[in-house]
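Box 3.1 — From sequence to structure: Cobalamin-independent methionine synthase II family protein
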Amino acid sequence: MPQNTDHIQTTHVGSLPRTPDLLEANGRFQEGEATAQELDAALDTGVIDIVRKQREIGLDIVNDGEYGHTMSSSVDYGAWWNYSFSRLGGLTPTNEDRWKDAEVKRSSPGNIVLTSFPDRRDRARFRDAYEDPTAGVLAHRASVAQPKITGPLTYTGQDAVVGDIRRLKDAMAETGAQQGFVAALSPGSCARVRNEYYSTDEELVYACADAMREEYKAIVDAGLTVQIDDPSIAESWDQINPEPTVEDYLAFTKVRVDALNYALRDLPEDQIRFHLCWGSWHGPHTTDLEFKYLVDLMLTINAGGYSFEASSPRHGHEWKVWKDHSLPEGKVVYPGFVSHSTNVVEHPELVADRIEQYASVVGRENVVASTDCGLGGRLHPSIALAKLESLVEGARLATERLF
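Predicted structure (token representation):
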């Protein structure tokens, strides 16, 4: 992992705002009005441009903005997950949108019940606000239907991930970027679609692990870092109604962690970073499970670095967790020092203060300044870029104080 030697390095979680040209090309391709070659050309141009912007802002560790992960519109909280539907065999399309349509599935242990978004406990508590289009809780988004699993899961995205890798490496070569990462879906998050084929929860999760491993391996074999996107570790807590015991939830979650480690077997830890968050929707989040219950389990994941929310109003205080938990030697953390969930642009001094807090508990060499979650699909492009600028400036201030 890229430990700091002379300055606080900077990165972000992955998703960056798509350009109008890319959204248009995507829409035309989905409607059959554009060829795959035309979409590829738009992606090639878009990735070079977004990597160049990251470098101009001053980010040390860049990515492709997740441009190869199709967004339905400029506001899209689910592209990090939905992209997998076109890269997996064994799925059958449906008309169900789990952001709108109630749907329940049962899993074990603890008879855990995962619900769809309308039945989340956070939404139930603040239902009037969630259903008020003027409240600013949820922005307008295009409906995206999720498939169901009707056969054995296989990975069919070989050409797509090769395209992601090629575009990022070409853009890095053109802009002089030295470090790059590509985001990929975790087995636990992959398993959150409706299952009509596998007989047990564990069988389903491990099938997802076998399939998604192909994507992880392709990325690391290309010399890039793979970021495992896994909100399921923390976010699923709010998706269980009624609320389970912490013990039952951790047992449920451990199955997902074990499956992820199985998928990552024999892959180099120094090319793996893990991202945990409590969900990208703009809601109160009063039902989030506290980080102190998750940190030990997170640290068992075979990754060289761990990304998590650290500036969210619900989780900004949790740097104190590291007073009682030791970061394994040689590993780093990627705390989010600017948030995807507010339009307020954080002051660089605040970013620097947050970096210093983490440096005081895990060491200055082990803190890579990042974002809480992906900014694309959640914030206006001008605000997203301003937050990255503030992040880089805050890291510069912190560097002056710490090195």
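Summary of the box: The two ends are 19 Å apart (CA to CA).
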